[in-house]
Known about the structure:
The protein has two domains: 2-185, Rossmann fold; 208-416, 3-Layer(aba) Sandwich (Rossmann fold), CATH 3.40.50.10300. Helix 2 crosses helix 10 (174-185). 46% of the residues are buried. Helix 2 (24-35) links the parallel strand 1 (12-17) and strand 2. The two termini are 47 Å apart. The strands form six sheets. An eight-stranded mixed beta sheet has the order 13-12-9-14-17-18-20-21, with helices on both faces. Strands 3-2-1-4-5-6 form a six-stranded parallel beta sheet, sandwiched between helices. The chain has a two-stranded antiparallel sheet with strand order 7-8. 34% of the residues lie in helices and 23% in strands. The chain has helices at 2-8, 24-35, 54-61, 72-75, 79-86, 97-105, 111-118, 131-135, 137-148, 174-185, 233-244, 272-282, 325-330, 350-361, 401-416, and strands at residues 12-17, 39-44, 65-66, 89-95, 123-127, 152-153, 157-160, 166-170, 208-213, 218-221, 224-226, 248-253, 265-268, 287-290, 297-299, 319-321, 339-346, 365-370, 382-383, 385-389, 392-395, 399-400. It is α/β, with parallel strands linked by helices.
Amino acid sequence: MAQVDQTLKDRKILLIVGGGIAAYKALDLIRRLRERGGQVRVVLTAAGRAFVTPLSLASLSGQPVHEDLFSLTDETEMGHIELSRSADLIVVAPATADLMAKAANGLANDLASTLLLATDKKVLMAPAMNVRMWLHPATRRNAARLMADGILFTGPADGDMACGEFGPGRMSEPLEIVAAMTQALSGDTRLPLNGDVAVPACLLKGRRIVITSGPTHEPIDPVRYIANRSSGRQGHAIAQAAARAGAHVVLISGPVSIPDPVGVEMRRVETARDMLSAVEAALPADVFIGAAAVADWRVEGTSDSKIKKTPAGSPSLKLAENPDILAQVSTRSSGRPQLVVGFAAETNDLLEHARAKLTRKGCDLIIANDVGAGSNVMGGTHNKVHLVSRTGVDSWPLLDKDEVASRLIMRCAELLAGSEPE
């Protein structure tokens, strides 16, 4: 408790209360924040006023409640700008489908949406709506866009709805939102969703995603092989993020020493040819993500017995080129996934090589990362990637591999929005 108090003490929180039955939880949320020393200012939407009163919110927060974009008192000093910039964190609870749609599309026709557009601070949303509204393609598309823009999420959770239905759409409980706020203010952007990484639930429900991960081992003889330094951490993290988003995930992994992700269908392979066979067997799919570091070559004529040292010197190994899994998936004449994502691990001329690979392989997106000396990407816990597409390059900062995975799954969901599952 001491750590929570220290994090929130004297922090300025701007709470936007949207219109939904979950608005009553905002009252308890304010109380919890005040207990921890937080300073809370409240913005109440017109729809929110139908569920909670300005007097209740003002009494608990100890501050006047803001409702009108064109209040003469506030706007003589550009009050909406001051509100959006003076806070340490903006929290939207409940975040309704309407508020999410406005934020995702840059609309600003009331005080709440204008604040969200004008702010330069972190924003945390706690969605709350009917299950059908949350699962609607438009809401899923908006959630993906907001995540890609850096908006943080907590929830929604599964549960009984006020409308009598059951499923995802319940707003996180006040203490769960407080925990998410604490993480956001301490610099941790991997906010909890039902206890884990912040990928909105059911965002990829009904989608099938095939992911490759780890290295391949190409035998030289029964005890030796050609391999690389890939740990599989990035590919496994992507599989975990996709599973949390509700997708059916098939993870085809080379030899790794890390745990299997939870809730995915595992298929283990050793060589590049094994991996290609497993990928072909797993298709069709909506998305293929080739995160594995597949060996480019294998030994032609593998020895059935251990190769011994001889006075004649070192043996000669004749190499044969391995199949190009990414290119074969990208150029399928039938059953090509809607979205094909490849990785480019380079030691020099990163973006130049990544753009060339995008064109040569025929895929939709290349995740480029520098694996040169000192990068500590292969085998490490962090990654700095560039998303290369036909329309340009989106460069992300150095991030934990779990966060890279979450952001990539959000981008995939955004690109798939509006299409029908395979």
